[in-house]
Amino acid sequence: MSKLVIVGTVAFDAIETPFGKTDKILGGAATYIGLSASQFSPDASIISIVGGDFPQKHLDLLSNKNIDISGIQIVKEGKTFFWSGRYHNDMNSRDTLATELNTLADFNPVVPKNYKNAEIVMLGNLHPIVQSNVLDQMETKPKLVVLDTMNFWMDTALNDLHNIIKRVDVISINDEEARQLTEEYSLAVAARKIQAMGPKYVVIKKGEHGALLFHNENVFYAPALPLEEVFDPTGAGDTFAGGFVGYLAKTGDFSFENMKNAVIYGSTLASFCVEKFGTERMENLSSNEVHKRLLKFKQLTQFEIELT
Ligand code: AMP
């Protein structure tokens, strides 16, 4: 089992979808990544920051999943990062209504001593300088560094983003972000251009249309499970990333072949995340449920064809 460091937001989210609306609920990239990765019981630590307004029960939820939370700083007099978004009827596109950095504005991440030799570092969606800062603190070079980011950082910190992209092995972004980053419409061309920026592996998430994994000339495609009800897509991308790194942490095999399985696990876990608002579905997800859905995935994609 490889040690896993996760850095990202631990947050309050307020979400509006065509099905309803929530007030401030638990959210954040690192929260979703951690909950998803916990399916593989990795030796994982979350590095983040929250304010004094953050309920202890949310921290307990993460520790009860055996995630080390000693790297989550609590600023008593500060407020927790807040994000609010509204989904369109297609549930694939959304508008960000508010991004309040609060304590995140002055976040100086500290990697706990016993995680400075972690084999895997998952750089969740955050300011690219903070992501770089975490990598700088590692005492041994991680075997695998995975980066997730979003258009917000492309708009506000593009140079810093390019600097961190150079240093990672895998990048996980969605289709629109890949297009924005490369100014290319074709995802195949975009993936090639991103590989030239540094990451040897490029994962492009396409929401309800699944995910693509690129490495050199190889491409792997995993569909998303056709779900009857998508309630709230928030955190699906992070849940995907959590499943991806969680599986790699468990297996310790970072080959392209094994990454295909990691993509399947990521897609499977993301398919649960969207079934309820916020983190609700991920909080009590059983390994049996995951197993059953993996079988469905297999049925969805397997076929026998005679090639003459
Ligand atoms: P996703 O739906 O996978 O893109 O992730 C949604 C999560 O990302 C929410 O729980 C938010 O709290 C968090 N988030 C939104 N905007 C940002 C941002 N600019 N930086 C870091 N995290 C963010």
Automatic annotation (TrEMBL):
UniProt domain Carbohydrate kinase PfkB: residue ranges: 2-280
A GO MF term: kinase activity
A Pfam family assignment: PfkB
Presence of keyword Phosphoprotein: no
Keyword Transferase carried by entry: yes
Signal peptide: none
Top-level taxon of the source organism: Bacteria
SUPFAM superfamilies the UniProt entry points to: Ribokinase-like
Alphabetic keyword roster: Kinase, Transferase
Listed PANTHER family: RIBOKINASE, SUGAR KINASE
Name of the protein in its database record: PfkB family carbohydrate kinase
Species annotation: Snuella lapsa
